[in-house]
Structures are given as C-alpha cells and as structure tokens.
Design goal:
alpha/beta; four-stranded antiparallel beta sheet; 9 helices; 16 strands; about 30% helix
C-alpha cells in the first residue's frame, strides 16, 4: 500500500458513484438530495430536506460538515478508469466540484456523529448556504466541502460582487457622430478595466479582478432607442470591500448609463492557527501527507458562513480544482478514501 493510502470499505466510493450518476445542476438538485438523505436514513440518522432543498442531518455540533449538492451543467459519461500507474479515477460531472467532497463528508459525518448539511445553489446564488445561516445556530466549528486535494486545506477566498450596467440613447442615423448606447457601454467598461489594472507581480488573490460575462445591445423593439447592457463580475480580495469597488465602478459612469448591484459576498481569510486548521495539519501528517495551506482566487459558500458565524472554519475535500467544471472532470478514488480518513480524524479531534 502506497504512502498515504488507507483501507476502504467502499462506502464513499459507492455513494459518490450513485450521486454523480444523478444529474444535479443548480435548480435541479431534488433527486440527488433524496439519494443523499436516504444514505443517512439507512444509517439511522435524523435527516430531512428543508424548504429550499438542503439535506439536513444535525447531530454533534462540535463540527458541521457541509458541501453543495448542485453542479454546473454538462454531461460526462460516468465511468471508472484505471490510470497507467494503477490508480482508479471516477469520471463524471461533479466528481470533483463538489460531489467528491460531499460524499466524503457524508461518510465521515455518519462515522463520527457530527452534524451535516448538503446545500443547494452554490454554483449560482448560494441560496442553500444563505438559508442555512439564518435557520440554525452557529456550530462550534465548520468544514466546508470543495476540492483542495486530500493533503490541502483552503483558508482564504476572494469575495464576489455582481452588477449589471445599462445604457439607452435615442436612435439616430449611424452616420451621426454622437456615441450610441453600445459605444457608451464599451467605453465605460474600458474605463473600469483600466481602473482595476494591477501590477502583474501582485498575486491574483490580492487583486480586484473585473470581468464582463455578458454583453447585449442593439436597436429596441420600438425602433426609437439603442440599448446596451453589460453583466460584470468583480472578485474582492481581503483588505478590499464591495463598497469601495462599487464606488470605483460608479465613478466611471460619467454622464451615461447606470448600474444595478446584487448582494455582495465578502472575502474571507482564516487564520492557520485555529483549532480546525491545526486538526487538519495533524490529520494529514498522520496519513503520510505534507499539509498545504491554500488561498483560492474564486468564491465559495465558506464566504457566506464566515460572514454570518464567528467560528473557526476551513474548506477541504478530495480532488484537483483545476478540473472544476472541465470536460475531463474526474476524481482519484484513492484520494477520496484518504479524504474520508482525514475528515474522521479531524472530527474526532474537534469532539474532544
């Protein structure tokens, strides 16, 4: 048995295969949620599906293990393949993000008796996590499930702010020199992009990233105006606020256009000295690993939990995050087994 390998009874692998075989894009998590709830029912754990679709299995709140049930869209034939070096990998949408972490957490929660929640909507609006923090008391500690690699622990995420810019101008002959709404929109985005330009030597985690994700425009149906919209996303590093980003963006509006903002998600950066972080380092070492502390440039439900609950927390789960949302998404099943063992060790430490 290789260094870091652990014996497995196949429980986590079976649950993972079942869940990955059930399509569960955001908004369509129902069947996968019922399969997950059945896993707890079969093991005599209290469980229910709440009004937004979360799978809730409360128990010992020394730790709450939580990951998301939903995936991004995309069909990848579910199969197990053996690699040239003898490893087994399970292919399928969600195997990495984040059904692998979800299955590992469900098994660890049953075996250690800690609380569990499988939440919905993480890939869109985090409605499951937002509902959860308003519907229950804070646990003593929280472990969020996302791929970090079995020997990695994520302590930081950038925040997230979404806005929609809209401009409208009277329609006119295209020979006229005055800018129309489309020109105003593209000029506005050029100013915004320049306003957040960073030194390339600055780590991405410490930068504000501005990205247009959808642009639409043209003559209105009544033919009397030209309209343009830009949906934009802004990643917020620790040390910055959504308010400061909104101020910068609005400062570039000039005399044309307006922007409508959605609710922001704040950044989070946990200390490596919390009880949760220490427990992970010790557990990973016991399994033969060299612990890695990670900072992610994206955003996760941990941002929601950290904004609501002043409790020690971290994000953990098997899988290579470079395969998130990818057409070749696949999970090393040996890493799944190792992650279950690490989670069991961490939970037992936090229960002491």
């Amino acid at each position: 048995m290789s260094a870091g390998a652990v014996a497995s009874d196949g429980t986590a692998r079976d649950l993972l295969a079942d869940l990955v075989a059930i399509p569960s894009p955001s908004g369509e998590e129902g069947e996968a949620a019922r399969r997950l709830a059945a896993f707890f029912e079969e093991r005599d754990r209290e469980v229910w599906i709440d009004e937004v679709g979360n799978v809730r299995a409360p128990a010992d709140d020394a730790a709450l293990l939580t990951s998301h049930v939903d995936t991004v869209p995309g069909e990848i034939p579910v199969r197990i393949e053996e690699t040239d070096d003898g490893r087994e990998e399970l292919w399928g949408r969600g195997s990495v993000d984040a059904t692998g972490p979800l299955a590992a957490m469900a098994v660890a929660a049953v075996r250690t008796g800690v609380s569990f929640a499988g939440v919905v909507g993480e890939e869109t609006d985090s409605r499951g996590a937002r509902f959860l923090v308003g519907d229950r008391e804070a646990p003593d500690a929280l472990i969020n499930g996302e791929p970090s690699g079995w020997d990695g622990v994520t302590l930081g995420y950038r925040g997230f702010q979404v806005g929609t810019y809209a401009a409208s101008t009277d329609s006119a002959h295209t020979s006229r020199p005055e800018p129309n709404a489309i020109q105003r929109a593209t000029a506005w985005w050029s100013r915004v992009d320049a306003a957040f330009e960073s030194d390339e030597e600055t780590p991405v985690f410490e930068r504000v990233t501005a990205k247009p994700v959808e642009i639409a425009g043209g003559v209105a149906e009544d033919g009397l105006s030209v309209e343009a919209t830009i949906d934009a996303q802004f990643r917020i590093p620790p040390g910055e606020t959504a308010a400061s980003i909104r101020e910068t963006v609005e400062g570039e509006l000039g005399s044309g256009g307006e922007i409508e903002w959605r609710e922001p998600t704040p950044p989070v950066m946990e200390s490596p000295r919390t009880a949760v972080a220490r427990a992970f380092r010790a557990a990973i070492r016991r399994r033969g690993g060299d612990p890695r502390s990670l900072r992610k440039t994206g955003t996760s439900d941990m941002n929601i939990y950290a904004g609501a609950w002043d409790r020690p927390m971290a994000t953990y789960g098997p899988g290579d995050s470079a395969l998130d949302h990818a057409p070749n998404e696949r999970l090393d099943l040996g890493d799944l087994d190792r992650a279950v063992a690490v989670l069991e060790d961490v939970c037992e430490t936090l229960q002491q």
